[in-house]
């Protein structure tokens, strides 16, 4: 993934904050999909919208790029009210990725990725260079995949092309509606991991809709839990959401598997460790800061009740299985 060699690299870091101020959407038949929602997303932040079916997630997303016009309220992109911006110009600054991608079947993968730059009238050579660079960035060899057609790719590969296409014109915001839900769980896990690496690289402002809580916990810097009518129940980090659900609704929504999920978002820290002992060297080792979930997995795989925890190669203490399973989480 070498993107450092092009002039666009600095521009790739660009991201803009989004602010929703009291937005409302009432459809012509009277349905109030979103009643009164306010939400701030920082530049470069990945925010996940989650909630039960019909709570208004997609409506919120589509108001941001004006595929749907809000009935009231304001949406600020980089401080500018999006309703004052020409929708076509707006959508060039906002990448949009949807389930099943919607690639053009009669165009090659390279042509698909170059769609927006072509609309923007970029010179041919630049479009090609940018499209190849983007395919590379999402882990597809342009020489191998560039000339293929969408039906000649797997579902996961098509999904990556969708992400590449959304990034092509270097948008300041990426909106993603259930981007990984059309593929099987194993491919989904891999795409999520790749996507996190990609985001670490490009640092776009991302609003992602999902109804998969594991996906939300895995990807989100913050998670917004919505209930019917787009009511914001809680807007928090994954760890706080699981550890301190703000309402009975959220508690029920995050559900019974909360304990396991909390292990995944809680790192091994020094306070959890017992002192080293003479036989510490016999135990499998693990780095300070890995998740409790990974630490437990490591104990199970090695059939050991102890891990020797190291920090930069230096042993700093022992983590016992008993201690791991009785960690005191912050009071709820
Ligand atoms: N064009 C429309 N006309 C009337 N009602 C609509 C329209 N589009 C959506 N709705 C309603 O608005 C509400 C919110 O829909 P939306 O698609 O935003 O929900 P969602 O949270 O994304 O749902 P899901 O998770 O099932 O995709 C639903 O009650 C839906 O039936």
TrEMBL record:
Entry-linked SUPFAM superfamilies: CBS-domain pair, P-loop containing nucleoside triphosphate hydrolases
InterPro entries named in the record: AAA+_ATPase (IPR003593), ABC_transporter-like_ATP-bd (IPR003439), ABC_transporter-like_CS (IPR017871), CBS_dom_sf (IPR046342), P-loop_NTPase (IPR027417)
Molecular functions (GO terms): ATP binding
Protein name: ABC transporter ATP-binding protein
Ranges that cross the membrane: none
Domain ABC transporter, first and last residues per copy: 18-254
Family membership noted in the UniProt record: Belongs to the ABC transporter superfamily.
Keyword annotations from UniProtKB, A to Z: ATP-binding, Nucleotide-binding, Transport
This protein's record includes keyword Transport: yes
Transmembrane helix as UniProt keyword: no
